[in-house]
Amino acid sequence: MQEMMKNRAYALLENGTVDRVLGWTRGEFAYDMTPAVFRNADEVKNGFVYNDFCAANLSKYLVKECRAGGKILVFLKPCDTYSFNQLLAEHRIKRDMIYVVGIECFGKADVEKIKEMGIEGITGITAKDGIYTVSTIYGDKAIKPADVMAERCLACKSKKHVVYDELIGNEGEVVEDCNRFDMVAKLEAMTPDERYEFWRGELSRCIRCNACRNICPACTCEQCIFDNPNSGVSQKAAVNSFEENMFHIIRAFHVAGRCTDCGECSRVCPQNIPLHLLNRKFIKDVNTFYGDYQAGEDPTAKPPLGKYEKNDIEPGEAGGAKE
Amino acid sequence: MQRIGVFICHCGTNIAATVDVKAVAEALSHEPGVVFSTDYQYMCSESGQTLMREAIREHKLTGVVVCSCSPRMHEATFRKAAEKEGLNPYMVEIANIREQVSWIHKDMAEATEKAVILGRAAIAKVHLNKPLKAGESPVTKRALVIGGGIAGIQTALDIAEAGFEVDIVEKQPTIGGKMAQIDKTFPTLDCAACILTPKMVDVAQNEKIKIFSYSEVESVKGFVGNFKVEIRKKARYVDEDKCTGCGLCTEKCPQKKVPNEFNMGFDTRRAVYIPFAQAVPKVATIDANNCTMMKTGKCGLCAKLCTAGAIDYKQQDQIVEREYGAIVAATGFNPLKPDKFNELGYSTCQDVVTSLELERLMNAAGPTAGTLLRPSDKTHPHTIVFVQCVGSRCDVENERGKSYCSKICCMYTAKHAMLIREKYPDTDVYVFYIDVRTPGKNFDEFYRRAVEQYGVHYIKGQVGKVVEENGTLKVQASDLLSGEQLHIDADLVVLATAVEPDKSARSIATMLTASMDTNDFFTEAHAKLRPVESPTAGIFLSGVCQGPKDIPETVSQASAAAAKVIGLLAKDKLTCNPCVANSNEMLCNGCSSCEKVCPYGAITYSDKEFRGPNRTTLIRRVATVNEAVCQGCGACTVACPSGAMDLKGFSNRQIMAEVDAICKM
Q: Is A225 an 8 Å CB contact of chain B?
């Protein structure tokens, strides 16, 4: 896969279709794959890496790249294409400045899960015939992908690319029997007190590093309200539990109806807070109240929270927490 | 720091009886920025306004807070007074301590505390107020009337008379509405058609009036003076311009079995039809659900017969976009279908009819050519029982009917009783009533004539049961005055069913953003003082859509609505509300969220140059608000993810300052 991608990058740079390539490169550790821009074939040759640790969604980086001018090649996994479309719908990126190569995806490995298996000194990962081979300084280990796959990949909503200029690998389908709302349903079944306890337990770990906001493809504001002293809610660090809760709740409201459920917020959280559950609750509610809607599926679709229809649900009918 | 003056109004005893106004003035005098605080008996009076103006001058006030009634009432009064002293009118804030405090609280300590809190919130807001200047917007000099009954007809005629263009949108194939179905009118007993049809002809002939018949309003955009309306002209499969109304097709169409809705289903019409002889426009309509050609593709007789070549089986619905300065809702009513009143036998006995059905049975142009015959066996009824208040004045919990009085039934029942006794003196007529309500000019005299001169039996009491036995309707009822149970063998029972707003009214109200009450009647801007205006600027109300009323009252209200429309259309420009949205371009993401939610199309985007980091130039897509089009609804301010969009006069900071002031203990 990596070689096929590199070859396409060389070709497209060579024939002048694109000026730069947005992909992944190795970070401090072998499992630490970081988004990177490559300016020429040499940089691609030396730096470009693609393997099952390349989990980062590259769509958001295009906001900045579109402002830098020229045409850029980006590699997008199916779930990343939804974010791409959403950014297009919000005019944050320019379609004619981007060349999208869709890449087939079978799910990405969660290195934390690998480490939990007692595997140390990781130096790489390869997938072949449905088995991961994790190479370590102590030798190779074979693992079943299902055992170490990221939660968001186990609950994958779509293996279909909703946008691309060309495709490497096969085109997949939208996953019809996706179980991504199971945990939300469990939370809904809790009493308000139990639910409050659950969220306090999670959110009390927040260190306000802002990683969730910074990675989120829906959070591309010129100036975030949390950084704007005139907004009335700006803050650097949460002063108390109320502010700890409110930062995440306000953020969930801000991305409601726009979040594609790419799961980057939870992936990057150093405290392992399941932030995606807040967003999924909104997605589930939007589906329930306004009919099924997947943000990013169609960039020309009118978002349910951004339009008004005569038969829209009345606020009183939506219900709320029962005492 | 602002220099704020606070004025507490007693409103006579309206406020002062429940709120300790002196204590409020004292408490608010200690708020930051307050340099003057006082109370007065009537702030809205000439002397109250003078008091305020003198204080502005003397204390060099930069902001004013008036604690009084709702801003809907006197905000404009106080703003004008402040403006006369050179203060920007938008530096005046109202704290509503009447509707929101004194009228809803009984305990003085509690009410006083709340008045202080609301005053404090208004002061907090004034601190952040900025002087605002109102712009102007042009007025489209054309009105739209939705509904072509007598209300819509009168409104349209009066507006056209003043020289303005009017469009009438009527969903039926003809204008005329319910009045066209009525036989005679109370209290003068002149024929409804004789007085209505000349008006219909006037409408047709008036060059200023355009009728969209068989049409419905599809969407409404814009605002007072500048509405854009899409009208759906439903396919009638007949070219309106070519059809001469000769009626040949309506006589020869082989599909004869369609129930005639104009005659309340007592006879049939053809699949191609003109509802009645005096229809306007006099154009045939093909009822696609019953036309053999439309259903099977075989027939086409009407097209062969039509010498004008007007038949067009392929006609499609057409959307017409028109612009208007004002819109009048005249959507009218329907009689309630009494099928929930099983005991009255409407669904089971053919000879139990509603009053509107009786109108057709008595009408010379009706199915029986004016001879009163029972629907079942076409014989003369000799005993007739009228039941009043069917579906009117019901218990609120009783889901069978309405809580309100339908207002017209007492009078039309007296009319029916009198007409029957006049024409068929051998008929016994009983009227069962809860009360007889006949306020109105010559109305009680009319009712008394029915009782005294025509010998109609009025019985205070209710009918409990109607069952049919061998062609006779056995009526069981109670006479509340004598306390007796009555058994009457009747030939015909007539139910005075409640009037209810037309079903289309709710969706029209939604499109017009006009409010409705729980019964789906349109609400007025003020129940007493602005009865023909809706709370939404530029939307006016005419006829029963606002509440039950008879023809004379409908016509007066229709003319009143027309007068209001004329007053609006006569203006060349309207002063805009300066409390409009504006976008902070430094924060704007250009994401179009605001544009999508803007109901007025006031937001546009353009690419602008900005300074980027390291002396670079950045081109960003940013929103611009057209202030003449923005109505200040604020939808964009909540849709904006970055807080770039804000509303002048109601900025996020101002509202947060009010909330903070209220929460501060």
A: yes
| Contact residues on chain A for B510, CB-CB shorter than 8 A | 310
Chain A CB within 8 Å of residue B589 CB: yes
Cα(B439)–Cα(B437) distance, rounded to whole angstroms?
6
Q: Is A222 on the interface with B (CB under 8 A)?
A: yes
pLDDT: is B217 or A311 the higher one?
B217
Same domain, yes or no, for A169 and A195?
Answer: no
Interchain proximity B587–A221, CB inside 8 Å = yes
Q: Does B643 touch chain A (CB under 8 A)?
A: yes
Q: Which candidate, B563, B504, B555, B564, places its Cα nearest to that of B534?
A: B564
pTM of the model: 0.73
User: What contacts B433, CB < 8 A, 6 or more positions away?
Assistant: B388, B389, B410, B458, B459, B460, B461
Q: Does domain B235-316 have CATH number 3.30.70.20?
A: yes
ipTM of the complex: 0.86
CATH code, residues B339-500: 3.50.50.60
B606, containing H or E segment: strand B603-611
Domain holding A267, by residue range, is 180-323
Contact assignment for B612 to A92 by CB distance below 8 Å = no
CATH fold match for the domains B136-234+317-332+504-572 and B339-500: yes
Q: Are B542 and B152 in contact (CB under 8 A)?
A: yes
C-alpha distance from A18 to closest chain B C-alpha (Å):
21
Residues of A in contact with B656 (CB under 8 A): 232
Min CA distance, A253 vs chain B (Å)? 9
Question: What value does the mean pLDDT take over residues B68-87?
Answer: 94
Fold of B581-648: Alpha-Beta Plaits (3.30.70)
A113 in a structural domain: no
